[in-house]
Design brief:
Number of domains: 2
Number of strands: 8
Largest sheet: 8 strands, mixed
Order of helices and strands: HEEEEEEEEH
Helix content: 25-40%
Structural class: alpha/beta
Shape: extended
Length: about 150
């Protein structure tokens, strides 16, 4: 009877640790259902290094995440949808840039706020965008000494 009780206790501890891990992982990755916000969109020439789930940051602070990426067959640009946390109001002349965390770091979407007294409405498209800079392309240009003039 004692061995059975030990097995049940160990089994319950394993299930509790697994549940705790799942809760932690869902909060850390932003997958939890309590992640309310409003959608915005933007169109980029290049989304190199950005995928669904990539952080959207303002002043280095995560304020949202990328929720959808698709190729526009008419413009050949990457249409991107992302969610911004409720309570964060962005001026309607803000810009969105694909930034890098460094040479070895990943890319993220950065919001550069403008100074307009008017704000983006839910579902609005940010027109002022700057695409990802290809580090490989820059290095090749430097090595070959190529000028595009």
């Amino acid at each position: 009877m004692s061995a059975h009780r030990t097995e049940v206790t160990v089994g319950a501890a394993v299930v509790a640790v697994a549940a705790g891990f799942l809760i932690y992982a869902s909060q850390f990755t932003g997958v939890s259902s309590g992640n309310a916000g409003y959608p915005l969109s933007a169109s980029f020439r290049s989304l190199e290094g950005v995928t669904v789930g990539t952080d959207v940051r303002l002043a280095g602070v995560k304020i949202g995440s990328v929720t959808g990426i698709s190729l526009n067959p008419q413009t050949f640009r990457a249409d991107t949808e992302f969610t911004i946390k409720d309570g964060i109001i962005l001026p309607d002349d803000s810009a969105v840039v694909i930034s890098s965390e460094g040479l070895l770091g990943g890319n993220f979407v950065e919001i550069l706020p403008g100074g307009s007294p008017f704000n983006f409405e839910e579902g609005a498209e940010i027109e002022d965008t700057q695409s990802a800079v290809s580090l490989v392309g820059l290095l090749m240009k430097f090595v070959t000494g190529g000028d595009d003039e």
